[in-house]
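user: can you give me the structure for this one chain? tokens are fine.
assistant: on it. calling the predictor now.
[tool input]
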Amino acid sequence: MTTRASVSYPRSLEANQTMTTDMQSDETTALQVACDTEVSGCVFLMRTEEDDKERLLEIARDHVREQHGKEYTLDEIEAQHVTEVAVETEAG
């Protein structure tokens, strides 16, 4: 059985002016949390802007509690499961 979690993105990439942007490479830094649990077949991936980290952590914590029955603090999720990723943006 595969569990699918709906993911909403709070703002479009172009609308967020607070993300770190390298104008030469057209890459932006975002935060990502993923749950790829082999046993349950869960695939959960969420990526958001750096300034929306608290919401990302809360959604990930709720996902793990509801889908996997495990409790984690926001600090544990941030330390163990959140990574910075480069996101390509359109030059314009």
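assistant: here you go. Confidence is low (pLDDT under 50) at residues 1-23. Residues 23-88 form one domain.
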